[in-house]
Specification:
The structure is a single chain. The protein has about 325 residues and is an alpha/beta fold. The chain has 2 domains: about 130 residues, Rossmann fold; about 150 residues, Dihydrodipicolinate Reductase, domain 2 (2-Layer Sandwich). The strands form 2 sheets. Strands 3-2-1-4-5-7-6 form a 7-stranded parallel sheet, with helices on both faces. It has a 7-stranded mixed sheet with strand order 9-10-8-11-14-13-12. Strand 13 and strand 14 form a beta hairpin. Helix 1 crosses helix 12 and helix 8 packs parallel to helix 10. It is globular and about 60 Å long. The two termini are about 35 Å apart.
Length: about 325
């Protein structure tokens, strides 16, 4: 089978490592380039145990990225948003397709980046071009040049609420309380992220100032109150989403109708059955809904590093290359027990 050369920049971060592992076993991908200043000169076999030819790839420093990217058809950017903002235009000018795992091109209002990401957006034309790639809600056409890969919290929230909003069975106010494992914060060696601080604790963070709040609102087309929480575990997101009843309906049927042919979404009978252990390590999302006749609660679970980042990026890669959507993802297995 003919393979396509693909690269990853930011390959030593958690999302970059996850993408590397998935693509190393992807039947239609040749992992051609891995960019990491921290691991420059090391092999992928030594650092993350990649098998075969992928394991022989050496991590490249930043000053070699543009040259090496010329050999790639697609590059995944697992970089901070300001880094993606600089790199994406360069890669696109070389004729390389870009799947950006950061938030650099997710928000459609360029003026919002100062408040939510701390920088002035200098490529407004790319914002309008970027396809927001949450496949279960909108699939990128084959040949798309720039994918804005959704954030982890927005993915979990949108997969729970969007079908109910679309069916007209819920109304605001919409509230999303979601909790993520610590890998969602990246590989930062800070006191707040140390084992002694995280273990046996549970807390909210970035209250009323999280950068994913406007993305969730944009994706749902509704105002949303969002609060993120930090779980004392490595990975996974559980999102509890609240809405008001708009009209009596079969809520599970609304979810089933939306996701009947979706390979990565499982609709369960009860929110009580949705659990991180069922999805961690996979590109799957579990979702379920309950109502007491006034309040509607939809709960979803995903792996923040897979469906919330690298797995969804590979799902988008498959779509823009015209490959089977499940390629490289259907063999992923959970970690429990």
């Amino acid at each position: 089978m003919q393979t396509v050369p693909v690269g990853i920049v930011g390959a030593s971060g958690y999302s970059g490592i996850e993408a590397s592992r998935i693509l190393a076993s992807h039947p239609q991908v040749e992992l051609k380039m891995l960019g990491s200043e921290k691991w420059a000169g090391e092999t992928a076999a030594r650092k993350v145990g990649l098998p075969g030819s992928a394991g022989k790839v050496k991590y490249a420093p930043q000053d070699q990225i543009a040259q090496l990217a010329r050999e790639c058809a697609v590059v995944l950017l697992a970089t901070p948003a300001d880094g993606s903002l600089k790199l994406a235009p360069i890669l696109l000018s070389l004729g390389v397709k870009v799947i950006d795992l950061s938030g650099a091109f997710r928000l459609k209002d360029a003026a919002a980046y100062g408040k939510h990401y701390g920088f002035e957006h200098t490529h407004a034309s790319l914002i309008s071009e970027a396809f927001y790639g949450l496949p279960e809600l909108a699939r990128a056409p084959k040949g798309t040049r720039l994918i804005a890969n959704p954030g982890c919290y927005p993915t979990a929230a949108a997969l729970a609420l969007a079908p109910l909003i679309e069916a007209g069975v819920v109304e605001g106010p919409f509230i999303v309380d979601a909790a993520s494992g610590v890998t969602g914060a990246g590989r930062k060696a800070t006191e707040d992220m140390s084992f002694a601080e995280i273990d046996e604790d549970f807390k909210a963070y970035k209250v009323l100032r999280h950068q994913h709040q406007p993305e969730i609102a944009q994706t749902l087309g509704r105002p949303v109150t969002f609060t993120a929480h930090l779980l004392p575990c490595k990975r996974g997101i559980l999102a509890t989403c609240y809405a008001r009843l708009a009209k009596q309906a079969d809520f599970k049927a609304a979810l089933m109708h939306k996701y009947a042919n979706e390979p990565f979404v499982e609709v369960l009978d009860s929110p009580d059955h949705v659990a991180l252990k069922n999805v961690v390590g996979t590109n799957n999302c579990q979702v379920a809904v309950a109502t007491d006749g006034e309040t509607v609660i939809a709960i979803s679970a995903i792996d923040n590093l897979v469906k919330g980042a690298a797995g969804q990026a590979v799902q988008n890669l498959n779509l823009i290359m015209g490959w089977p959507e499940t390629a490289g993802l259907d063999a992923l297995r959970g970690f429990h027990p």
